[in-house]
Amino acid sequence: MIFRAVEDADVIRQAARGSVEAYNLLVSRWEKRVYNYLLRLTANREDALDLTQDVFLKAYQNLRKLDDPGRFAPWLYRIAHNEAYSMFRKRRPEADGDEIEPESTGTGITVGGSSVFPIELSLAVAGALERLSPDQREAVVLKIYQGFKFEEMAEILACPVSTVKSRLYTALELLKTELAPIKARGVS
Amino acid sequence: MSCSPFDLRDYFLQELPDPQQRLVEAHVKTCQPCREELDRLHFTEAALCSLRDEEIPQRIAFVSDKIFEPSPWRRWWNGFWGSAARLGFASAVMLSAAIVVYALRPVQPLPHLAAPPQIVQTISDSDIQARVDAAVTKAVAEVEARETAKTQHLVADLDSARQRMVWAASTYEIAEKRLSRVRLTASGYGLPPDADAREPK
Predict the structure, then answer these.
(1) pTM to 2 decimals?
(2) Which residues in A lie closer than 8 A to residue B48 (C-beta atoms)?
(3) Considering chain B, what is the average pLDDT of its residues?
(4) DSSP A102
């Protein structure tokens, strides 16, 4: 992990000096994570892909402004967050930031039967995630799927750590309640 | 409500410092409700992780176009000004170099210049008063000299005027005497005094 971080820092320095090859290497390391983050925010593959391309283009244009290569990940996700919410606002200009909701994917289902198969569990989780507010969902995505620390999440979301924790813990409570019946039935 | 010494969710998310993490770990081993709560959190996390990451449908790559690429000099210049740390270091180096050059610079004496005059000296109140008095005395003397010169000039003018008046009076007196003599002479010849008076002298 540390070795990878050092490598990333070197690649970032080379890319900041104008090396496109180095930047492509950096993109190849981060594109899947950024794409999945945006996919869980937007619930739309095309939007997620378009936004991922925009994010990496914007990151390349502004890479010289990144003073500390060690802060690349939160910096990149901050760009991704801004791009996603910018798209939401363009789609619904009359809505406030807090009211912005991504389009529904229609994957949320009620799980029935005595046992739950992995695919059913995934669908149940997708549905439970979809029922969270956008802020709560993003907190879960950043913490559980992307593994950021609270301070990094606060940097990405541009809000205090206390707000991040509040959103995340509320979301975890809701998810626990939603997914408890599945646990009671047992996962095959 | 958890009875854990620290927030069980912070422990679960590994956001506690190591000592606190160990304290909660020890507590959970002996506390059934906290262990069950932790199990629920673990299950929720496991369920969330069942949602696998997708592969990106299309790889992203940037193409280097030499036409639009800035020159190496330009890249270096942008990089130089774009990095505050590098700019700060360069400024520090320049400042250090300037200090070193100044310190090592040979000091040449200036032979044609005499020792600098002692400008700073103690001036007491009495000195100041003496200087003021001298200046006042000098000014008064100058004014008096100017007034004296003016008075002498006026007196000279007055004398000159007085002499002219004396001369005019004596001239008038001579003329009067002559006129009287002419009248007497004219009366001796039986002429009217005015006829002789009209004759030119």
Answers:
(1) 0.58
(2) 125, 129, 140, 144-145, 175
(3) 83
(4) P
CB-nearest partner of A18 from B47, B52, B75: B75
B106 to chain A, closest Cα gap in Å? 42
Tens of pLDDT, residue by residue over A31-63, are 999 999 999 999 899 999 999 999 999 999 999
Residue in B9, B15, B82 closest to A172 by CB: B9
Any A CB within 8 A of B60 CB: yes
- For residue B68, the chain A residue with the least C-alpha distance is A18
Asked if B53 and A176 come within 8 Å (Cβ–Cβ), the reply is no
Give the ipTM of the model, two decimals please: 0.77
Chain A residue with the nearest C-alpha to that of B65: A20
Q: b/e for B28-66, b at 16 or more Cβ within 10 A?
A: beebeebeebbebbebbbebbebbeeeebeeebeeeeee
Q: How far apart are CA B36 and CA A105, in angstroms?
A: 33
Q: Which residue in the block uniquely carries the two structure tokens 């001298």?
A: B134
Q: A153, exposed or middle or buried, with CB in 10 Å at 0-12, 13-18, 19+?
A: buried
* A140·B48 Cβ contact <8 A: yes
Q: What is the Cα–Cα distance from B88 to A108, expressed in whole angstroms?
A: 55
Residue found under tokens 């180095």: A22
Q: Place A136 in a pLDDT band, splitting at 50, 70 and 90.
A: very high
Pick B47's closest partner by Cβ from A16, A31, A179: A179
